[in-house]
Amino acid sequence: MTVACNRGERLRVETDRGAFSARGLINATGTWESPYIPDYPGADRFHGRQLHTRDYRTAEEFLGQHVVVVGGEISAIQLLDEISRVTSTTWVTRREPQFRDEPFTPEVGHAAVALVEDRVRQGLPPGSVVSVTGLPVTPAIRAAQERGALKRLPMFSEITEHGMRWADGSEQRADVILWCTGFRSSLDHLAPLQLRETSGGILMTGRLATQVAKYPRIHLVGYGPSASTIGANRAGGAAARELTSFLSAPVNS
User: Fold this and answer.
1) DSSP string, 63-96
2) Rounded to an integer, what distance in angstroms lies between the CA atom of residue 244 and that of residue 239?
3) CA 198 to CA 123: how far, in whole Å?
4) In this structure, is the dihedral angle defined by the CA atoms of residues 78, 84, 86 and 88, taken in order, positive or negative?
5) Which of 44, 66, 130, 148 is packed most tightly, with the most Cβ within 10 A?
């Protein structure tokens, strides 16, 4: 799908295989196609490589280089652990990471998804699961802590030609900046529908919060609570049943 537009009682959906008229739409584009890299002063003058989590292949490609890993999510910790085993690293996060010793049980996961669901039902940006659960201390993370790999620095203020600089004037040379800064929902093709609220989020409703409040005939599977593995397991089928029921309902005269 390249774009979707409102055409009264129908939607015009344009794709690389032609245009279609649809009564309803289930959008399941998820987030993988929209890696997020924050805009930092000096990024365009950095002489090294800048990669995103999605570009990562193996730690061995960074042998002999200093890698700055940016991000406080689980993916950042995992990649930092791998890379720090073969070369020197610096870890930078915007907020102080919150580690939790309790195991990440299904109950904890469902509670975290419920908090994300509550946000989108208010029209707020979804946020991440880790932001409400904290980082689980696995054996691998504990080993990385003992090796000194998880010594975190606050976010730098600018990127230089050869690294980065903090507000206090301190600098770090770097060959690679690995942005483990997550993904955003791939919804640009729905922009003509103006789904977002002034808060930046989309007001969601429906049984599993997949239904767009402004457009009940549109469901977003992969947005908010259904972006997680836990939330996505049931969301697709539920959205299909809910949309079918909505389109089958008699129109009030």
Assistant:
1) TTS-EEEE--SHHHHHHHHHHHTTS-EEEEESS-
2) 8
3) 9
4) positive
5) 130
Q: For residue 81, which amino acid is it?
A: D
pTM equals: 0.76
The pLDDT of residue 253: 44
Nearest-angstrom CA–CA distance, 82 and 75: 11
- Rounded Cα distance between 217 and 164, Å, is 47
Q: Give the three-class secondary structure for 169.
A: coil
- The whole-angstrom separation of Cα 179 and Cα 69 is 6
Q: Sign of the C-alpha dihedral, residues 86, 90, 95, 99?
A: positive
Looking up tokens 């549109």 gives 218
The CA radius of gyration of the chain, in Å to the nearest whole number, is 21
Tokens of 216: 């009940």
Taking the CB of residue 117, how many other CB atoms lie within 10 A of it?
A: 18
Residue 118 structure tokens: 């509550």
pLDDT given for residue 140 in this prediction:
84
What's the angle, vertex CA 81, arms to CA 77 and CA 83, rounded to 5?
Answer: 115
| Whole-number Cα distances in Å, 13 to 5, 7, 90 | 7, 10, 46
Q: How far apart are CA 38 and CA 57, in angstroms?
A: 21
Query: Closest by alpha carbon to 196, among 176, 171, 215?
Result: 215
- pLDDT band, residue 130 (cuts 50/70/90): low
